[in-house]
Design a protein that fits this description.
homodimer; alpha+beta; HIT family, subunit A; ten-stranded antiparallel sheet; three-stranded mixed sheet; 7 helices; 27% helix; globular
Chain lengths: 331, 331
């Protein structure tokens, strides 16, 4: 029967109830065979003039063919120009929507996906994430940058072509603040990093590990909100994703690709989101008590009123079962 | 262009960006003509033996025909038997999934919906909510009860037949805690209720009002997370939904039906969730600084990685536009 589990970082309770398993996979969408080139797609090889100007590009060695391109988002959620201009309106508070919204085009091919790419190609995507974050940190108006991916329409993608996004914001997002607070409180008590403790516990119990290499661990969190939710985290303490070392980028690409490949095989190429959570800009102390990580959320169930109303989650798949199934996939 | 707005209760920032309007209505699902009776539906008139035993029933005056029935949920997220048994497991914390999970069958007719019911019928549904909350408060293991509705499959409903649900939980949900904290902090500063201030501001500006009667106000919140999000709130301060007076139930039924009817007409019968937020059990002081209310969330856009990753929201419809459009509907 069900049990309640507490997320140690944000103190969020989750109901793990495997009896609800029948509700899985409601979100699956119709699939069409995709071609490597789509005429109307501005992200496809040959259509480069249909995007805003390139901010960053990585090319194949010894060739002019690009592998990864970064451009401004044509329909930005926040605009890059202007100042914040905080002001009151009636009893409420408001500021101008200043920020940066960029698109990382993962590949020139319309039908590609990270699960199917060469690891050296995935490495370039992560390098693009890192380089853009490092650059945006120089803009004093911003406090945070979120790197994320919406894979497939059900996960919120508006373009089919494989791409990632980043949004730099003038405030620290609420969810990140909650994680920072949890980690700081733990550090005050124990004088060590909470995520480092979680890594030790996961390696000790071996119950929830999906994949591992010298630098990274991929596991299903103890209080997973969603079925097959996965966390990828550096095994050596590191608070800020912008500080990832060059030699760590390939191992991250490797474990990300392997994890997404296992998800692809087990759940028949499900829609998913992933995000990178890292320390905010200009808060050096968080580098000590926070620990950057990626969160992968397959979109295989629907959120309903209970989740919206309470902020706690009903998860019909125990993370131990999810990890075992993902490990048992023959990739 | 976009702006950032702060929710005064939980300090959550929302990006209001009407340029994103094209993304609306992705969640719409195929509609079939529904009949008043479905043979395999356990909630339909005549199939009463297919549900768990009745906990509460309201019948038509001078007739044996039922209007609203409450039963236990056949597939509960939390079970009613047992004690909490909090315990550690490795470095993590856990407790048994104890709670109550009930179904309020809104109507004997399979094709009914609140937007189309008589107000006197909606009154009975709300009376059932109130009576069940009052009863569950007597169980000392529970700290909160969430009343909610998932309307249509896209909004998480697993049954087509019109119904609401409630879940009583042994902990105060995170989202409710955040609201309580915001209200308490405001009270400490100002010695008055924050929601009462919001009601005054909304009545003063008239920008976001959807409907109003002697007892209730229906409006689109200043920092709405979702397009056409609506709040229904008692105009006279009242912290605890369980304390709603008998003479207030009909006005609530009336404004709820009118609000949902306007949504139904404007957005072509969209999927939606609603929840009732009220004070937790056994916390009498919250009755002073908190203010119960209903939140209605039409499900007309998808959540994506940015929202999951940050906890702030991208809303492509300004609440002022939403309220005006809803007011202009000819019901």
């Amino acid at each position: 029967m069900g049990e309640l589990r507490k997320d140690p970082v944000v103190n969020r309770w989750v109901i793990i109830n495997p009896q609800g398993r029948k509700r899985l996979f409601l979100e699956k969408e119709a699939r069409e065979e995709k071609k490597a080139y789509a005429e109307n797609c501005p992200f496809c090889d040959g259509n480069e003039d249909k995007t805003p100007p390139e901010i960053l590009v990585f090319r194949e060695p010894d060739s002019q063919k690009w592998l990864v391109r970064v451009t401004a988002n044509k329909f930005p959620a926040l605009r890059i120009e202007g100042e914040l201009e905080r002001q009151g309106t009636g009893i409420y508070d408001q500021m101008q929507g200043v920020g940066a919204h960029e698109v990382i085009i993962d590949s020139p091919s319309h039908s590609d996906s990270i699960a199917d790419m060469d690891e050296s190609h995935v490495e370039k995507i992560i390098q693009a994430y890192r380089d853009r974050v490092v650059d945006l940190k120089l803009d004093k108006r911003f406090k945070y940058v979120l790197v994320f991916k919406n894979y497939r329409i059900t996960a919120g993608a508006s373009m089919e072509h494989p791409h990632s996004q980043l949004i730099a914001t003038p405030i620290i997002p609420k969810r990140v603040k909650e994680e920072l607070k949890g980690c700081l409180e733990f550090y005050k008590h124990k004088e060590r990093c909470l995520f480092c403790d979680i890594i030790r516990e996961e390696k000790r119990s071996q119950l929830r590990i999906v994949a591992e290499n010298d630098h990274f661990l991929s596991f299903t969190p103890y209080a997973s909100r969603f079925p097959y939710e996965i966390c990828i985290i550096p095994k050596i303490h590191c608070g800020d994703f912008a500080n990832i070392r060059n030699e760590e980028i390939y191992p991250l690409a490797k474990i990300l690709k392997e994890t997404l490949k296992r998800l692809q095989i087990l759940l028949d190429d499900p829609p998913y989101n992933y995000v990178i959570h890292t320390t905010p800009f200009h808060f050096p102390s968080n580098i000590r008590d926070y620990h950057w990580h990626m969160e992968i959320i397959p979109r295989v169930i629907r959120m309903a009123g209970f989740e919206w109303g309470t902020g706690f989650y009903l998860n019909p798949v125990a993370p131990e079962d999810a990890a075992r199934e993902l490990r048992e996939v023959n990739g």
